[in-house]
Specification:
This protein is mainly β. It is built from five helices and 33 strands.
Length: 582
């Protein structure tokens, strides 16, 4: 049976080290010698029930750096090992976190996680602050919050317990999310193995849910992960809706399996279904005919996986009469939707919304690059302003976050690859200059950036010159690309991740005014491309890399056209563009 959500968030375990430390110390990060804690080898962290203390090793600087223990390598950012009289610990030392610090496990626990308990307290006489636990089931590619935010308001160690119920590999991190310079101590992180007996937790499937009588209740809208662990495993979920409301359901599955998706009425009869092929995103859009209980049913046509989960999203319109268009966003660049529901709160540092006049983006603090950037192009954005070439850090990032600099890519073998291109913002010098902020850049292979990618950018402006306006969304996924100096997973001392793939979606509509999402029809041209971030493709046509929006959404976990009618999305997102490339 399956267990648990890719969106479960369990954030970090930590293991770190110490030496009496002054808050103002700027010494380099120390490498820690292996040791025992509470009589248990720290190797045990990868399996079994274990308490991870901080009794061995030393790190005396808040500067970001890795620490090696026998259990693996840990990353501490704005965090050190404290042993002063103002530190709170169960033994002789604990981790001390400041600002928006994190303590991250950079290796996987192989036996999953049932529960996680963590001791916490205020440092000295500092003010109150709060923190969160996050989890990753894909070796740190993406993270999901586990449970609720924890407030630390006492100088006495308290224990916060999280129900994880995550099967397969998992790693955790702790994120300090409020309190600024107020410090907190973290100690004795205890993890139990995952048990197939089921359990509760936010954001994931709860077993058993193998029949309508056992169906898991959903509060909509929701997105979470579940698992089909055997051919006989099925999953039921229930929700209530009113006559005339429109329900939208999508199911993203692992690439090696074929799961099917059904919508059932209160008596268990199928009223809508999606039965596509292996590795294909299933989707249902349906208007409810009566008020009452409905069921979402997931089963396997072929294949199963106890370690790779599916992602299920269910949403319901707020009123009867069919699908309701979401409110007009404040930024024109989001007229087609916010692809990852990015937020301007610093409690979501890996999906942080930055709204600029020239473009809007979701920033990933821990990767140092955007998840995606969205922008609108029509003839009002184009003019005669010169290219500014003023690559620079983005000072609007939250306080305490690392700011990638204009020279951070130097010597890496990768271009400072624009998301929103400089040539799409030539109406004024200020608009062009805004595209050179490093929050608008990714490390992009020269052959990609200067070859088919540049040609696609030029083609977009050709479409505008022909009387169209374009909504463009660019993003990346995966880790590791090949530049002129070879393959790399990170640059800038590990602070900037090199993506493996870069994608773009261009929605082309005739130039006009109004809420442009309502002007997208079944015949609207949508261009979707997905290219490798590698050398050797400079002379390839961008048309070689055309794909479907569905495929990009499945690979990257975004919802690109969420403000477009679900029925129109279903048509457009499954098509591969076959229009001209010149």
């Amino acid at each position: 049976m399956f267990k648990r959500i890719t969106k479960i968030a369990l954030a970090c375990l930590m293991a770190f080290l110490i030496a009496s430390c002054s808050d103002n110390t700027l010494a380099p990060v120390d490498s820690v010698s292996p040791g025992l804690e509470n009589g248990i080898s720290t190797n045990a962290l990868t399996t079994g029930t274990v308490t991870e203390g901080f009794e061995n090793g030393s790190k005396t600087s808040y500067a970001s750096g890795n620490v090696t223990l026998t259990s693996g390598v840990w990353l501490l950012t704005d965090a050190l090992i404290g042993t002063s009289t103002s530190d709170r610990f169960a033994g002789t030392r604990s981790v001390r976190i400041v600002n928006s610090g994190i303590v991250r496990m950079t290796f996987d626990r192989i036996s999953g996680a049932g529960t996680v308990s963590i001791k916490h307290a205020k440092y000295g006489s500092d003010a109150n602050s709060s923190w969160e636990l996050w989890a990753s089931t894909n070796s740190g590619t993406s993270w999901v919050k586990v449970g609720s935010t924890v407030a630390t308001s006492s100088t006495t160690l308290s224990t916060a317990t999280f129900t994880a119920n995550i099967s397969g590999t998992v790693r955790f991190e702790i994120r300090k999310v409020s309190g600024g310079s107020a410090r907190i101590n973290i100690d004795d992180i205890t993890i139990t193995d995952y048990s197939s007996g089921g359990g509760s937790g936010s954001g994931g499937e709860i077993e058993p849910n193998n029949s309508t009588s056992q169906a898991q209740s959903l509060t909509l809208p929701t997105t979470f992960t579940g698992f089909i662990s055997s051919a006989s495993d099925v999953d039921y979920f229930r929700f209530t809706g009113n006559s005339g409301q429109s329900v939208s359901i999508s199911l993203t599955v692992p690439s090696t399996v074929d799961y099917d998706l059904y919508l059932l009425n209160a008596s268990g009869s199928v009223i809508s279904r999606s039965e596509l092929g292996t590795g294909t995103r299933e989707s249902i859009s349906s208007t409810l005919s009566t008020s009452g209980t409905y069921y979402v049913y997931v089963n396997s046509y072929s294949g199963s996986s106890a370690s790779s989960g599916y992602s299920l999203s269910v949403s319901l319109s707020t009123s009867g009469g069919g699908w309701t268009l979401p409110p007009l966003p404040s930024s024109v660049h989001l007229y087609m939707g916010n692809p990852s529901n990015a937020s301007t709160t610093t409690s979501t540092p890996t999906n942080y919304l930055m709204v600029k006049s020239q473009y809007t983006l979701s920033y990933h603090r821990d990767k140092g690059i955007p998840n995606w950037v969205a922008w609108h192009v029509d003839n009002t954005w184009l003019g005669s302003a010169q290219r500014q070439d003023d690559f620079r850090n983005d000072a609007t990032l939250p306080t305490g976050w690392y700011q990638v600099g204009g020279n951070s890519y130097s010597g890496s073998g990768f271009d400072r690859g624009h998301n929103c291109p400089s040539a799409d913002r030539t109406s004024t010098t200020a608009n062009n200059s805004a595209t050179f902020l490093m929050t608008n850049m990714i490390p992009q292979s020269p052959d990609n950036n200067q070859g088919p990618w540049a040609n696609l950018e030029n083609y977009t402006r050709t479409l505008v010159a022909q009387g169209n306006e374009c909504y463009v969304i660019m993003g990346q996924y995966g880790t590791g690309g090949t530049g002129s100096s070879g393959f790399k997973t990170t640059i800038d001392g590990g602070r900037v991740t090199v993506p493996n793939r870069v994608w773009k979606v261009i929605i082309v509509i005739p130039a006009a005014s109004g809420d442009d999402a309502t002007r997208v029809t079944n015949s609207t041209r949508v261009i979707a491309v997905d290219m490798p971030n590698s050398q050797g493709i400079r002379n390839n046509s961008w048309g070689t890399y055309r794909t479907t929006v569905d495929a990009i959404e499945q690979a990257s976990g975004v919802d690109i056209m969420s403000r477009v009618s679900p029925t129109i999305q279903a048509v457009l997102e499954s098509k591969v563009d076959n229009g001209p490339t010149l």
